[in-house]
Amino acid sequence: MELYYKDLISEEASLDKLVDDLMLVVQGASELAEVAGSQLAPERHAELRSKLETIKEACGRIKEHAVSGMQATDKLLRKHPYSSLGFAFAAGILTAVLIQKSRK
Q1: Ramachandran quadrant class, 20 (left: phi over 0; alpha: psi -120 to 50; beta: rest)
Q2: pTM surpassing 0.85?
Q3: Which of 40, 67, 74, 87 is 20 to 30 A from 9, comparing alpha carbons?
Q4: Whole-angstrom Cα distance, residue 56 to residue 92?
Q5: pLDDT tens-digit profile of 14-69?
């Protein structure tokens, strides 16, 4: 018996928001580099540009990695739904016990 809760939470909602936020940071840094670029030496400006490109590529890799991890998790949970629930329950109980011990 399989349970499907499609559209309960958008699969890429939080991931898209994270990537969008990262891209906004990169865009802001790019605009800052343009403003500061007029005051920098050409080699420093080129260095700043290359670092921004590296950050943009890293954002793309983060998104690809997150999507592949999300798909692997979905596949695993669909293949073993009950044992996954049991493992999550056991981890929750263990965490609660450890928190209780640390409070004493």
Answers
A1: alpha
A2: no
A3: 87
A4: 37
A5: 766 777 777 787 777 777 777 766 677 778 777 877 887 888 788 788 878 888 88
**Token representation of residue 10:** 């958008």
> Which DSSP string corresponds to 42-54?
HHHHHHHHHHHHH
DSSP for 16-42, written as a single string = HHHHHHHHHHHHHHHHHHHHHHTTS-H
Tokens for 97, please give them: 């016990």
Structure tokens that stand for 92 in this block: 């929750």
CA distances from 60 to 12, 20, 45, 68, 85 (A): 14, 11, 23, 12, 32
* Single-letter residue type at 90: A
Q: Are 52 and 30 in contact (CB under 8 A)?
A: yes
Q: What is the largest CA-CA distance in the chain?
A: 66
The answer to whether the beta carbons of residues 77 and 87 sit under 8 Å apart is no
